[in-house]
């Protein structure tokens, strides 16, 4: 057999194994609310090729070969356990077993690693929590996709309604258009599933989930209990109200909590999941998920401060243009943003640096920031320049950040790439808050410059969902548990 034939045979064997994994992953997800991960990447509803590519990524970031032949036995071992709702990372299981010297079988090691999700420790399925989206723009539709994707398994969140302006005599036509925007997206592609419209009932039906479209020009116009909605979490995607007084307007009958997808003002808590979500008080009804840029810089900033100490910093964001800019030169309340977004680089302000203090109150270092909007539709990069508390070198910093992305409590927020030719479009659809670009990282003594990619739409929407899961009480534990 030639080398090429041998490689092809090996590929076909791995394809067959990956194909056999799909029904096991699906059954665990549907029947037991178990989400199977590989280095923090969900394998639920993934194709054969996607599963193989995720394994290849694991080799790139972990620096060691990780094949489906190695992870399949751990997946099979999970089916023999009486698991409760949880997330299980079979990549970490395989690597931990490889490093373990006790001679335990795959079945024994797996049972030990996920013991917190079995027996007396097992979490029972909880009653789903209603969610309402107020506003249905870029973030609103992506959050809707994520909620629909997870519906009925793993997070207990139920998207019950969206609230938009308009309606009247052309409400049926309006719903059709909004459903179409949910179905097809120029950046993020086709919706994975089926979408139909119940024009008479005023509903969008996505993958069997009935979503009521409510028309209102102000929160005071809506009584959510009239639609059978109760104890719901409302996600405000409009950014129209950012302080406690304004956001309190949403606390109508049927709404229990309000989550803002923009930086909060005044005493509204700004939450970056993975960093300060544990500070949310159980009785807090109003909170913010801060901005996409704040979510991109705060996790790596915390990681660097934990290990090296940060004395001062500056963040320069090169940000994709957004809907608040003009396609062509026109009036805008902000001077430069009135100029054509697809034709210019536009200097603008960012509140991300000042928001760091809210998310990281223990960080005493002054952080400054500025931003440039550029003619790309999605994915941005934050250049984080830091003065550290001690000297180090590039290799040490990269090894540390690689380990953080794999094994720390921040592994869902921080990703890591070693691709030498990485560009912005490579990160469309990333579910992490930021991705460390290893090749661009610069370290000189006590000065470090990190280049952090982030999908300012989808990655941020994933952070929003994580916050909503946390405050709803349906954020299930992950195994093996990350090191503290």
Structural features, described:
It is built from twelve helices and 21 strands. It has an eight-stranded mixed sheet with strand order 8-9-10-5-4-11-12-13, with helices on one face. Strands 15-16-14-17-20-19-18 form a seven-stranded mixed sheet. The protein has a four-stranded mixed sheet with strand order 2-1-3-21. Helix 3 packs across helix 5 (106-113). It is of the alpha/beta class. 33% of the residues lie in helices and 24% in strands. It has three domains: 3-121, no CATH class; 129-262, Rossmann fold; 292-458, Dihydrodipicolinate Reductase, domain 2 (2-Layer Sandwich).
Q: Short summary of the structure?
A:
With 484 residues, this protein is an alpha/beta fold. It has helices at residues 3-32, 48-62, 68-78, 90-99, 106-113, 138-150, 171-183, 244-247, 292-308, 352-359, 394-407, 458-472, and strands at residues 34-38, 41-42, 86-89, 129-134, 157-164, 184-185, 189-190, 195-198, 203-206, 209-215, 232-236, 255-260, 286-288, 310-320, 346-348, 367-374, 380-392, 414-417, 434-437, 442-454, 478-479. The protein folds into three domains: 3-121, no CATH class; 129-262, NAD(P)-binding Rossmann-like Domain (Rossmann fold, 3-Layer(aba) Sandwich), CATH 3.40.50; 292-458, Dihydrodipicolinate Reductase, domain 2 (2-Layer Sandwich), CATH 3.30.360.10.
